[in-house]
Design brief:
323 residues; alpha/beta; Rossmann fold; Elongation Factor Tu (Ef-tu), domain 3; 2 domains; six-stranded antiparallel beta barrel
């Protein structure tokens, strides 16, 4: 899969079947849309393409208003989003920088400059509530009219449902915030995980007897607290662990979000390695403690809880084998 930061150059502008969106989490609704794009691209002899945005448009407007609390919590970082799009069979992803110029672009200019001249779109699929251009003035009806003028076909995909619930990024965020990983699995079609490269931290966990591998979290995550997790990418099998994702209020007042993972019975250097942390169960919310002794006791309890989770799971598997 080819990834472009902004519109491709002339040699990379092969005609394409395109869809446009933030695709945060690439949930089952997104997957249905991407499958339709892939199928149509194959049928028409086109490249399957996705245009997405960085930062998220709502993040841009929240920052401009000086109130980042209005920005959506991110389900996935860009790396995980791109991996999901590649898995869906997408040939080309355009990561468009969402800035003041892009936000102020009239719908007609977006159609002519971006879709027609920039991407050579021949077939386009969007959600049935899709809006585009400055102040979200462009509608699906306007897009169909533009397609008739410029020679591209427009289709819409109805909302994908999970029972009586609409599958959406908002629904995934609600499930993750509540620690409902069974629900998030239904909505995403897979277990929730965050990937990243292991970075150096303050080494405080090692001092407390609980060394951690640390992953930087660039955006407001969709979940926070203490969790039972598994870590992929360091051994042939995923490794059991306990993790904290949050701002670490007891030891840090910077507000920076960090994902810290304490691996059980594993003592190898992990710095620089790319890992994927799979979330299994929420233990509790993040708390601020009076001193490091109380913090250490809380971490010990969390580790015991996580070890118990894996012991029960192993026992259940053993019992199943005996049946």
């Amino acid at each position: 899969m080819k990834v472009f930061r902004g519109l491709p150059n002339d040699r990379a502008r092969a005609p394409c079947a395109l869809t446009i969106g933030n695709f945060d989490g690439v949930h089952r609704g997104h997957q249905a849309l991407l499958a339709r794009v892939r199928a149509s691209a194959s049928q028409l002899g086109l490249e399957a393409a996705v245009m997405t945005f960085e930062p998220h448009p709502r993040e841009f407007f929240a920052a401009r208003a000086g109130d980042l609390s209005r920005a959506p919590q991110r389900i996935a970082n860009l790396r995980d989003k791109l991996e999901s799009l590649a898995s869906a069979g997408i040939d080309r992803v355009i990561v468009e920088h969402f800035n003041a110029h892009f936000a102020s672009m009239p719908p007609e200019e977006f159609t002519s400059r971006v879709l027609v001249e920039g991407l050579h779109v021949k077939w386009l699929m969007v959600g049935d509530d899709f809006c585009y251009g400055a102040k979200r003035a462009g509608t699906v009806a306007m897009l169909r009219q533009a397609g008739e003028r410029h020679g591209f076909h427009v289709e819409t995909l109805p909302t994908v449902m999970h029972g009586a619930e609409r599958i959406s990024s908002s629904a995934v965020r609600t499930a993750l915030a509540g620690g409902d990983f069974e629900q998030s699995r239904h909505l995403l079609g897979h277990s929730y995980a965050i990937s990243g490269h292991v970075i150096h931290g303050q080494k405080l966990g090692r001092t407390l007897g609980f060394p951690t591998l640390n992953l930087r979290v660039a955006h407001r995550p969709a979940l926070s607290g203490i969790f039972v997790v598994r870590v992929h990418g360091l051994a042939a099998q995923p490794l059991p662990a306990v993790a904290s994702i949050g701002i670490r209020p007891t030891v840090d007042d910077s507000g920076r979000v960090l994902l810290e993972v304490h691996l059980f019975d594993f003592d190898q250097s992990c710095y620089g390695k790319l890992v994927r942390v799979e979330f299994l169960e929420k233990i509790r919310n993040e708390e601020k403690y009076e001193d490091l002794a109380i913090l250490t006791a809380a971490i010990d309890n969390d580790a015991r809880h996580a070890r118990g989770y894996f012991a029960r799971r192993a026992g259940a598997l053993t019992a199943t084998d005996r049946i």
